[in-house]
Design a protein that fits this description.
Blueprint lengths: L2 E9 L14 E5 L8 H13 L4 E5 L13 H8 L5 E3 L3 E8 L5 E9 L2 E2 L7 E2 L4 H5 L8 E4 L9 E2 L3 E2 L3 H10 L3 E4 L7 E7 L10 E7 L10 E5 L90 H4 L7 E6 L19 E8 L3
Parallel strand pairs: 1-2, 2-3, 3-4, 6-9, 7-8, 9-12, 12-16, 15-17
Antiparallel strand pairs: 1-17, 5-6, 10-11, 13-14, 13-16
Length: 367
């Protein structure tokens, strides 16, 4: 399949800062645009994003962007974020984005973006632990890029006070989806890039990883950009993820085909999803704040797709057929914590900042 190199610039947790951004095709901002979410703060950041020279700008909010999590402010804040066609504002939803080039070629990426993070204190878009699995099961299996404010557990989530502060259920969802790229922020100390190789062969340990490679950033005083090359250039090793969703490399022992199982929404929290024929990439699939006293939905037990998160040979009835069958080409995921703000409040010794992170990767051209 023909492909084209795309440059993705990742940033998060700017907290009212408007840093100069390196050039690229796609900009991803993984939340915490502001400190308190006021309209004036949001307007300042939006103007900065609007003027940034990218074809597409992917945007989610974070726990500090509190006014974007309230019905009262939707008329103002949400309308502002949706007023520029180059900005794709995602509210726990999936979207297909298209890049168009001067040589008349086009390329597409399937993006899922969500502002949610584990609830802590009086902040926005928080979810309790018992809601996490249902929330992240909403990520479509064919997603190329997952943008979340929270990091997955044990990946770029190191906090000096609390250790690993990411979400385990998100990590498990990434094992099943295995996107090319997972961009997050939230934990300022977790800034950096690593490549996760997923273990798809273990028949005894669920959601297992093979190994993790951390990418070295330039020295603190260096003026070099933080660039990670995941393309097919000869001197670099390309990311082991061809985005495959349907090419069968071995027969399945179930009639359930990949990418077709209908995920039940979180009862009382998320709207009904469209029919399986249209889901998971409709024009808009939005979620509401997942904090509710509604009972937790019980996972159906009549499905015969195997055991969630279980690797191994497809001949086994235990293997996660939906996640593995025809999708073994998805072996690695690049996890990026793009937190621009390096310090935490009250910023003793003054605020410090990280570099935006630049990724070069291959994406398929539209035939």
């Amino acid at each position: 399949m023909a492909s084209r190199r795309v440059r993705i610039v990742c940033i998060s947790d700017t907290h009212n800062q408007t840093p100069k951004l390196p050039p690229g095709d796609i900009l991803i901002h993984a939340g915490d645009l502001t400190n308190q979410g006021s309209f004036s703060e949001l307007h300042k950041t939006f103007t900065w994003l609007q003027q940034a020279d990218f074809q597409i700008k992917i945007l989610i909010c974070g726990n500090h962007d509190i006014t974007c999590d309230a019905t009262f402010y939707e008329q103002y804040c949400i309308d502002l974020l949706q007023s520029d066609s180059s900005i794709v504002y995602l509210r726990h939803e999936a979207k297909v984005i298209t890049l168009r080039y001067e040589d008349d070629t086009t390329a597409q990426l399937k993006i899922f973006g969500s502002p949610y993070s584990p609830a802590k204190g009086f902040w926005a878009f928080g979810y309790p632990p018992e809601r996490a699995s249902q929330l992240w099961e909403q990520i479509p299996l064919e997603t190329d890029v997952v943008v979340t404010h929270t990091p997955p557990k044990f990946h770029r989530d190191e906090s000096g006070k609390h250790g690993a502060s990411g979400c385990e259920q998100l990590r498990q969802a990434l094992w099943r989806v295995r996107p090319r790229l997972s961009v997050c922020g939230h934990i300022h100390e977790g800034y950096g890039v690593e490549i996760v190789t997923w273990d798809l062969s273990s028949a005894n340990v669920k959601f297992k990883e093979s190994h993790v490679k951390r990418c070295e950033e330039p020295p603190p005083l260096s003026k070099k950009q933080f660039v990670v090359d995941l393309s097919n250039r000869r001197r670099f090793r390309a990311l082991l993820n061809d985005g495959s969703v349907g090419s069968m490399t071995e027969p399945c022992n179930t009639t359930l085909q990949p990418e077709t199982r209908h995920r039940s929404p979180i009862q009382g929290l998320l709207p009904d999803v469209p029919s399986p024929a249209k889901y998971p990439f409709p024009d808009a699939h939005k979620a509401q704040c997942p904090i509710s006293n509604a009972p937790v939905a019980v996972k159906a037990t009549t499905e015969s797709h195997g055991t969630y998160g279980q690797g191994g040979p497809l001949s086994s009835c235990r293997v996660d057929q939906e996640a593995i069958c025809g999708r073994r080409g998805r072996q690695e995921t690049c996890v990026v914590n793009a937190a621009y703000t390096a310090t935490n409040w009250p910023h003793r010794g003054g605020k410090k900042f990280n570099r935006p992170i630049v990724l070069d990767m291959e994406i398929p051209l539209i035939q």
